[in-house]
Amino acid sequence: MGSTSFFGSIKVPTNYVVNILLMWLLYAAWPSVWLLLLLSSIGVAIYQPRKDSFRASIAFALMLIVIHWMFGEQSVWAWTEAGVMASMLILLNMYVNGLVKRPGLQNVDQLQTAEQTQGISQVQGQGANQ
User: Fold this and answer.
1) How far apart are CA 68 and CA 37, in angstroms?
2) 91 vs 99: CA distance, rounded Å
3) pLDDT tens digits for 97-110?
4) Are the beta carbons of 121 and 114 closer than 8 angstroms?
5) Do 97 and 55 contact (CB within 8 A), yes or no?
6) Residue 37: partners with Cβ closer than 8 Å, 6 or more residues away
7) How far apart are CA 61 and CA 87, in angstroms?
8) Can you say how many angstroms the Cα of residue 83 is from the centroid of all Cα atoms in its chain?
9) Which of 3, 44, 77, 85 is such that its CA lies 20 to 30 A from the CA of 68?
10) pLDDT confidence of residue 13
11) Residues 87 and 57: beta-carbon distance below 8 Å
């Protein structure tokens, strides 16, 4: 059980590091690689509270700007495009976080637990009737 928690604790930071390295290596040749940061940002939005999600999206947006500054084209048009990409990282993160954290939606784990509890009570009720 200790190895599971160890691997679980390093999975997310490893994902971030690999995505940032891939972006750093490929940005000059393939600017669409910024979508890796978008995927990581959305992953954070789903599982983290709003404040942590916002901080992570700002960090990803800053990383995108720094990588563009290091390897991207230095025209006004390219900087505008990089700014729009960074803004999309933040906006989509907040949008997804807002959808997931809506009061009407339940956590998947809570929903599964409720379904299991209902299933157990139904089985017990059928056993009592017989």
Assistant:
1) 13
2) 12
3) 999 877 665 555 56
4) no
5) no
6) 19, 20, 23, 60, 63, 64, 89
7) 7
8) 20
9) 44
10) 80
11) no
Instruction: For 47-96, write each residue's pLDDT tens digit.
Output: 888 998 999 899 999 999 998 999 888 999 999 999 999 999 999 999 99
pLDDT for residue 129 is more than 60: no
Tokens read off for 128: 């009592």
Residue corresponding to tokens 């006004």:
76
Task: Report the Cα 12 to chain-centroid distance in Å.
Answer: 10
Cα–Cα separations (whole angstroms), residue 87 to 63, 81, 91, 118, 128: 12, 10, 6, 44, 59
The number of C-alpha atoms within 13 Å of 23 and in the hemisphere containing its C-beta is 27
Q: Strand, coil or helix: what is 49?
A: coil
